[in-house]
């Protein structure tokens, strides 16, 4: 840049133009990056929604006209006719089983109609479409109807009330996630119940009781490393430790429980996740206590309080809102962890709710995972619906804890 | 205390030779061949793709966040990033399988892109760590003292120049540790690669083919019914040990970098 201090600024040759151009290019690049980033994050959410709703083509095993030529719908048929249909169409073994549960003749008309619909007419999903396809590509759907007469097209929200309370099933129309929901709730409860006290206690110990020393630093470094270890490895650890090595305890046989499982239990999963989240809790709890100004401790000591009184009477209540934050962090971590659950042995297909801590289990993340592998695309839709449930559950619990924290903060004043 | 317990499960099959383990091209424990190279290259590929996506995009977003967005918008975006960082990884896996791969296949052709490929997995890992990169890069830039930003303006540089020539080099230490932390996170990622990258180890540099990473392999064997004592079973622990060592090394480097950075800037 040629310049003589006497020359007015405007006349100096400058390289302003390229420099400004650089600034513009950079702004464009930055804007592009931001757009790309936002796009992906939004696409993430949308793709889940996309799968969870859409048209399905149902094909009935037996059409209504075959079993009741004159009726427009099952509602027109009386209980006795319905019972007759069932006895005629279903295998004797099935009839016997249903009768043992509750005799067919004593069931209500609605129940019988439901059975007929489910077992005799037995709609099967032969094709399903995503939300985007259903909304924007009606032509494809209509084309399919033309090519395949005899199918019914209905719009299906895969995420509905029955989904939440039904159990697993091989039929995608019947499958639900109630076992997975209960499993998830049990597992995260165990994990938090185990890990929070130990973690907070360790945090208190490291912050208040242990004297700063080489040993303490080594321990802290260890814990930080542990917090960064991939969950896969915790899964392996949990498997080896709780499922194999500790199986007498985790399967309950040491307590005389007869569940016939081999350690792949709710308890094992809960403990594994507890170990996983423990370092995080310790680190955050320690930070919470370290952030208390020294004057609190000085004041308590000045009036002669003992160490225990100091810690539990003064410090702990003071950071109770931060402890809730720690709980929030731990919860968020634990609720979405899939890999440890799978390695510890979450069941792929299980049709009963866990009966106890020592029972086999399934949980939401692992259920989603296994469903995603299914060759039937309908199970992918179920997986999407289950993801929405998982996100809702996670959000709900988080909000609950945030509100709790706010209440504590208000009470502290 | 716990690191001792960690070493308990990591027993490995006494049969294989260490050399073949490290350099052999095939991984078929049942057949007695123990080369780790296929799963290792797959892991490295997915991580590399993820980082190639996330680092530029993420740091750019962080720059925008740090310098150009007004405070109110920043205050809404930061919590959103935290929420995004908390999304369970299966959601990302789902996204990879059902949106990204079909998208790739329709744009680049079905012959080129197979249903399971490392590119989808890698890109999705990039999306997964993107919020993390943005947050950490933002912190790294914020750690640069303000006079670094203002002084160049005083001698007539544009904002962009000030940034490129002064602030960014100053934040380089912080950014490097971001890179390492994110790499460590990406290496340990299992669900996304399990769903999207494929099963069956495959030694290839083509990101559009299916291949299995270390973590994907562990998951696949673990969800099967491998009996303890079989080669399959012990192999997952062997690979787990490798993973553990790699992650530990990365984390240690990151911690050291952070400590050194703090010492230098204080």
| Main pleated sheet of chain B | 2 strands, antiparallel
Helices and strands of chain B: which structural class?
mainly alpha
Strand order of the largest sheet of chain A: 2-1-3
Strands of chain A, total number: 3
Largest sheet, spatial ordering of strands of chain B: 1-2
What is the topological layout?
The complex is a heterodimer of chains A (413) and B (266).
Chain A (H helix, E strand, L loop, with lengths): L15 H37 E8 L3 H4 L11 H11 L2 H10 L7 H13 L1 E6 L2 H6 L1 H10 L3 E7 L3 H5 L12 H32 L4 H14 L3 H15 L1 H4 L15 H25 L3 H9 L4 H12 L1 H16 L3 H6 L19 H9 L4 H36 L1
Antiparallel strand pairs in A: 1-2, 1-3
Helix pairs in contact in A: 1-19, 3-5, 9-13, 9-16, 9-18, 10-13, 11-13, 13-16, 14-15, 16-19, 18-19
Chain B lengths: L1 H5 L11 H6 L3 E2 L4 E2 L2 H32 L2 H15 L3 H20 L9 H25 L3 H9 L4 H12 L1 H16 L3 H6 L17 H10 L7 H35 L1
Helix pairs in contact in B: 3-6, 3-9, 4-6, 5-6, 6-9, 7-8, 9-12, 11-12
Structure overview:
The complex is a heterodimer of chains A (413) and B (266). Chain A has 413 residues and is mainly alpha-helical. Chain A contains 19 helices and 3 strands. In chain A, α9 packs parallel to α13, α9 crosses α16 and α18 runs antiparallel to α19. The mean pLDDT of chain A is 74. With 266 residues, chain B is an all-alpha fold. Chain B is built from 12 helices and 2 strands; from the N terminus they run ααββαααααααααα. Chain B has a two-stranded antiparallel sheet. In chain B, α3 packs across α9, α6 packs antiparallel against α9 and α11 runs antiparallel to α12. Chain B is globular and about 65 Å long. The N terminus of chain B is likely disordered.
The gist of it:
The complex is a heterodimer of chains A (413) and B (266). Chain A is mainly alpha-helical. Chain A contains 19 helices and three strands.
């Amino acid at each position: 840049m040629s310049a003589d201090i006497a020359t007015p600024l405007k006349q100096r040759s400058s390289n302003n133009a390229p420099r400004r151009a650089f600034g513009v290019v950079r702004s464009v690049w930055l804007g592009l990056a931001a757009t790309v980033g936002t796009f992906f994050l939004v696409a993430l959410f949308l793709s889940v929604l996309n799968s969870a709703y859409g048209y399905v083509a149902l094909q009935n095993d037996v059409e209504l006209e075959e079993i009741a030529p004159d009726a427009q719908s099952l509602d027109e048929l009386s209980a006795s006719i319905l019972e007759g249909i069932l006895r005629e169409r279903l295998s004797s073994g099935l009839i016997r089983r249903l009768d043992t549960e509750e005799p067919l003749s004593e069931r209500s008309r609605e129940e019988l109609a439901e059975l007929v619909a489910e077992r005799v007419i037995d709609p099967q999903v032969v094709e399903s479409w995503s939300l985007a396809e259903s909304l924007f590509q009606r032509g494809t759907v209509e084309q399919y109807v033309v090519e395949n007469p005899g199918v019914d097209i209905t719009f299906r929200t895969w995420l509905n009330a029955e989904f939440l309370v039904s159990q697993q099933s091989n039929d995608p129309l019947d499958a639900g996630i109630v076992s997975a929901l209960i499993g998830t709730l049990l597992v995260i409860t165990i994990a938090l119940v185990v890990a929070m006290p130990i973690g907070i206690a360790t945090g208190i110990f490291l912050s208040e009781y242990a004297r700063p020393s080489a040993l303490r630093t080594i321990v802290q470094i260890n814990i930080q490393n542990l917090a960064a270890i991939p969950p896969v490895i915790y899964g392996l650890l949990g498997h080896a430790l709780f499922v194999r090595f500790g199986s007498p305890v985790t399967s309950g046989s040491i307590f005389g429980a007869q569940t016939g499982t081999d350690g792949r239990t709710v308890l094992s999963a809960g403990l594994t996740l507890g170990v996983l989240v423990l370092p995080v809790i310790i680190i955050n709890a320690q930070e919470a206590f370290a952030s208390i100004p020294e004057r609190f401790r000085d004041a308590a000591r000045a009036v002669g309080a003992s160490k225990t009184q100091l810690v539990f009477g003064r410090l702990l209540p003071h950071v109770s809102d931060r402890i809730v934050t720690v709980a929030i962090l731990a919860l968020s971590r634990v609720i979405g962890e899939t890999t440890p659950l799978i390695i510890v042995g979450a069941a792929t297909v299980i049709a009963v709710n866990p009966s106890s801590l020592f029972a086999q289990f399934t949980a939401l993340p692992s259920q989603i995972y296994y469903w995603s592998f299914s060759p039937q695309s309908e199970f992918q839709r179920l997986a999407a619906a289950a993801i929405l449930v998982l996100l809702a559950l996670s959000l709900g619990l988080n909000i609950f804890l945030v509100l709790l924290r706010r209440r504590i903060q208000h009470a502290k004043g | 205390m716990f690191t001792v317990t960690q070493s308990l499960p990591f027993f490995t099959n006494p049969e294989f030779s260490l050399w073949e383990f490290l350099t052999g091209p095939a991984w078929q424990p049942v057949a007695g061949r123990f080369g780790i190279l296929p799963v290792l290259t797959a892991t490295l590929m997915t991580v590399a793709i993820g980082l190639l996506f996330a680092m530029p995009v993420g740091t750019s977003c962080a720059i925008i966040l740090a310098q150009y967005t007004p405070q109110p918008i920043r205050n809404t975006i930061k919590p959103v990033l935290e929420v995004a960082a908390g999304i369970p990884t299966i959601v990302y896996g789902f996204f990879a399988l059902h949106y990204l791969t079909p998208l790739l296949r329709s744009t680049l052709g079905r012959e080129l892109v197979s249903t399971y490929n490392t590119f989808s997995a890698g890109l999705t890992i990039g999306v997964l760590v993107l919020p993390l990169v943005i947050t950490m890069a933002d912190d790294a830039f914020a750690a640069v003292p303000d006079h670094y930003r203002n002084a160049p303006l005083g001698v007539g540089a544009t904002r962009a120049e000030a940034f490129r020539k002064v602030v960014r080099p100053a934040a380089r230490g912080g950014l490097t540790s971001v890179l390492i932390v994110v790499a460590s996170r990406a290496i340990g990622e299992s669900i996304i690669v399990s769903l999207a990258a494929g099963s069956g180890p495959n030694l290839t540099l083509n990101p559009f083919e299916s291949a299995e990473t270390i973590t994907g392999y562990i998951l696949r064997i673990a969800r099967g019914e491998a009996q303890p004592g079989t080669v399959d079973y012990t192999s997952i622990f062997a690979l787990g040990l490798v993973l553990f060592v790699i992650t530990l090394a990365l984390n240690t480097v990151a911690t050291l970098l952070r400590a050194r950075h703090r010492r230098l800037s204080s």
